Amino acid sequence: VTLLRQAVKAHRKYTDEAISVQGVDRHLLGLKLAALENGDNIPQLHLDTSYAESLTFRLSTSQVGAKHDAVMGFGPAVPDGFGCCYNPQASRINFSVSAFNICPDTDSEQFVSS
To answer: Among 20, 62, 77, 85, which residue carries the largest CB count within 10 Å?
Structure first.
């Protein structure tokens, strides 16, 4: 639980930065969109395979905080990924995990049990 709390705190900090336009991903997206809008070439960074890989989120997580005892969920961001939604309660944390069943590498039951 301690590690989850640390992860939630770090995620909250990054979310606050993104909301206040301080997240680096927003600036990089802005560079690409400005180039497209002006008819310029897309910056080389955006064409690099490592940049594309950095936008591939095999584990997509989100807190859906609710005071009610509810389990919520969402799908994975990529076909070979997992969606993990959590709802912290006073005495427990509700989780839901999803995966596409078309990918042999993603088994949500195995993910949960590990």
So the answer is: 85
DSSP string covering 39-102: TPPPPHHHHSHHHHHHT--SEEEEE---SS--------SSTT-EEEEEEE-SS-EEEEEEE-TT
Least confident of 36-40, 48-52, 71-75, 84-88: 71-75
Report the distance separating Cα 88 and Cα 52, nearest Å.
32
**Contact assessment for residue 75 and residue 63, using Cβ atoms and an 8 Å cutoff:** no
pTM: 0.62
pLDDT tens track for 60-80:
888 777 777 777 888 898 899
Name which of 109, 46, 97, 37 is nearest 73 in CA terms.
97
Cα–Cα distance measured from residue 16 to residue 19, given in angstroms and rounded to the nearest whole number: 5
Sheet containing 93-99: which strands, arranged edge to edge? 59-63, 82-88, 93-99
